Amino acid sequence: MIRGRLAPSPTGAQHLGNARTHLAAYWAARSVGGELALRIDDLDSPRVKSWAADQAIDDLRWLGIEWDTPIARQTEHVEHYRRAIETLHRHDLIYPCYCSRKDIEEAISAPHESRFRGESAPYPGTCSGYQYGDRIEDREHCFRFRAIDKALRFDDRSMGTLRCNPAKELGDFPVVTRSGHASYQLAVLIDDRLQGVNQVVRGNDLVASTFRQIDLAERLEIEAPEYAHLPLVRGSDGRRLAKRHGDTRLSFYRDQGVRPERIVGWAAASLGLIDRIEDCEAGELIECFDWEKLPTEDLLLGPETKRFAE
Ligand code: GLU
C-alpha cells in the first residue's frame, strides 16, 4: 500500500509551484489506491509565519486534495529526532562544528560547480577531527553528520536511476542546527517514517538532499521511502518563482474568485496528464496520472496564469 505525503512549510504562502507538486503527490498515491498523509514542516522556527500553516491547509482543501491522516506537525516529533541524534552519536557519526558560513567560504579555495541544483561546495572538513563531546569554550556549534564515502543510488520514479557519493560530492552536513534543533535532513526522514510514508514526490531541487537522507536512513537502519523528483515551476525569465513574476499565491487566486478547477487543470496540463488546459476537479484526474507522462524540463510560467481570473 502506497502512502504519499503533503509537507508544506509554513514559512510563506503556497504558490502555483507548490500546488503542482501537492497535486502530483496526491494523484501519484491515489492512482494506485494509496493513501496520503499531511504534515506541516514547522521546524524552521525563525522563518515560520503564524498564519501560514492554516492557510496551506485551506489551500489544499480548496484545491480538492484530501488526506487520510490527522494533521501532523514536526514540532510534535522533537523527542523522536532526539533519539535519532543519540543513535548517530553512539555510532560516532556526528561531531560539533564551529565554522561560520564565512569560515567555510574561506576554507574552500577553488570555485565549485555542483551537478546538483543550488548546492555549494562540500564542507571542507575543518572540524571533522572533533568527537561528539569535544567543546571549544562556549562557542556556538552545529553537529555535522559524517557523510558516507561510498556511491549511493536510488531509482527515482520520474528521473530514473541516480547515483552520488555523499562524502565526495556533498560533504558532511548538519543534523543539529546551531540553535539546537534537528535539521531539515534528519527531521523529514524521521517524520516520514513516523507517518508510514513510503512515497515522496517533491521538487528536483531536493535531489542532493535525498542522497543525504538515504545516507542517514542507512546509518539509522530506517527504510527510506521511494522518491520522485519533479521539475520546478519557474518564472518566465527562468529564475526561481518570486514576487517579481506576479502574484502566484494560491490565496491570492482564491481572493480573486479564481475557481480551483482552473489551477488543477493548469497543473494537470503542465504535468502532461491532460492534453490542454481545461477546468477539472482534482479527484477527476486521479486516473490520468502516469509517471511516463511527467515532464523532464522545468516549466517557465507563461501568460496563461495571468488569465486564471478571467
Ligand atoms: N516542507 C518542504 C517544502 O515545502 C518539503 C520537504 C520535503 O519534501 O522533504 O519544500
From TrEMBL:
<comment type="similarity">
    <text>Belongs to the class-I aminoacyl-tRNA synthetase family.</text>
</comment>
<dbReference type="GO" id="GO:0016874">
    <property type="term" value="F:ligase activity"/>
</dbReference>
<keyword id="KW-0648">Protein biosynthesis</keyword>
<feature type="domain" description="Glutamyl/glutaminyl-tRNA synthetase class Ib catalytic">
    <location>
        <begin position="2"/>
        <end position="265"/>
    </location>
</feature>
<keyword id="KW-0479">Metal-binding</keyword>
<keyword id="KW-0547">Nucleotide-binding</keyword>
<dbReference type="InterPro" id="IPR049940">
    <property type="entry name" value="GluQ/Sye"/>
</dbReference>
<dbReference type="InterPro" id="IPR000924">
    <property type="entry name" value="Glu/Gln-tRNA-synth"/>
</dbReference>
<keyword id="KW-0862">Zinc</keyword>
<protein>
    <submittedName>
        <fullName>tRNA glutamyl-Q(34) synthetase GluQRS</fullName>
        <ecNumber>6.1.1.-</ecNumber>
    </submittedName>
</protein>
<dbReference type="InterPro" id="IPR020058">
    <property type="entry name" value="Glu/Gln-tRNA-synth_Ib_cat-dom"/>
</dbReference>
<dbReference type="InterPro" id="IPR014729">
    <property type="entry name" value="Rossmann-like_a/b/a_fold"/>
</dbReference>
<keyword id="KW-0067">ATP-binding</keyword>
<dbReference type="Pfam" id="PF00749">
    <property type="entry name" value="tRNA-synt_1c"/>
</dbReference>
<keyword id="KW-0436">Ligase</keyword>
<keyword id="KW-0030">Aminoacyl-tRNA synthetase</keyword>
